[in-house]
Amino acid sequence: MISSFSLSPLMRCFRSVAALAGILVATAGLHGLALAEQAPSFVQNGVLTICTNPTLPPMTFVKGQDVSHPEGFDIDVAQALANRWRARLSVITMDFTGLFPSLSAQRCGLVMSGIIRTPAREKSFDAVTYQDTALVVVGRKGTPSLTSMDELAGKSIAVESGTSYITRLGLINDTLVAAGKPPMIIQQYPTEEQVVQQVLIGRVFAFVSQDVELFFRMRQLGDKLHVLITPDIPDYHHFAIYLRPNAADQTQLQSAISALETDGTLPALRSKWSVTDQSTKNGAANATSSSMFDWNAFFSALTSTAFLHGALITLSVALISHIIAITISVPIAIVLNSPQKSVLKIALEGYVSLFRAAPTLLQLLFIWNAVPQFFPIFREQWFTPFLATILALSVNESAYQVEINRAALSAVDPGQELGASALGLSRRDIYWRVIFPQAFRIALPPTINEFINLLKITSLASVISLQELLAVTQIQVARTFAFTEYYAAALVYYLVMVFFFLFLQKRVERRFAWSDRKKVVSNAA
Amino acid sequence: MQHEATDLPMISVRGMSKLFGEFVALDRVDFDVSRGEKIVVLGPSGSGKSTLIRTLNRIEPHDIGTLNINGKLINEKTDPIQLRCMVGMVFQNYNLFPHLSVLENCILAPMRVKHMSRAEATALARRYLEQVGIPDQADKYPIQLSGGQQQRVAIARALCMQPQVMLFDEPTAALDPEAIVGVVSIMDELAEQGITTVCVTHEMAFSRRIADRIIFMDQGKIVEITPPETFFTTPQTDRAQNFLNQMLRY
Question: For site-directed labelling of B225, which of A172, A492, A496, B57 has its Cα 20 to 30 A away?
Answer without folding.
Answer: B57
